[in-house]
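Reviewer comment 2.1 asked that we show a complete input and output for one of the modelled complexes. We chose the ribavirin triphosphate case, as it is the one discussed in the main text.
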Amino acid sequence: MAIERTISIIKPDAVAKNVIGQIYSRFENAGLQIIAARMVHLSQAQAEGFYAVHKERPFFKDLVSFMTSGPVMVQVLEGENAVAKNRELMGATNPKNADPGTIRADFADSIDENAVHGSDSLDNAAIEIAYFFGKDGDLCPRTR
Ligand code: RTP
Ligand code: MG
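Response of the prediction step:
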């Protein structure tokens, strides 16, 4: 299996609940390494740009408003099959449908406030890494 990189975002609800460390442990226990991280309070323009694929969707305004409601923790995860592995750890978008033991089942309250984001493909991971950490992840420190 290939070593991949993906973006994880701990959303404002989970930052406010003080569970960054608990979520980080899940990545580490699954063999994903945090190779870069930054806490940011997204501006409206940054949140709109990040979720631009959803701009025609009915939930877009609420999504942007939620994502700018407080700081988020953004990290690059590296490891085997990182994109799919992170999505598995996250669980379904709606926490009501998330498998027991997933991050969203344990920490999310609703489909709107669902604790974490994860890149949904390798191509989008590269785009999202560039969005937060520069072209080709220039700002990611080398760990190997
Ligand atoms: P994310 O992008 O945040 O990792 O979540 P996801 O891939 O599981 O879900 P996605 O379809 O990309 O939707 C992005 C975020 O928009 C909100 N959403 N609300 N009310 C709704 O039907 C609805 N659908 C999506 C969620 O907060 C979701 O995380
Ligand atoms: Mg998505």
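Residues 54, 59, 63, 93, 111-112, 114, 117-118, 120 surround ribavirin triphosphate (ligand 1) (CB under 6 Å). We note this here for comparison with the apo prediction described in Section 3.2.
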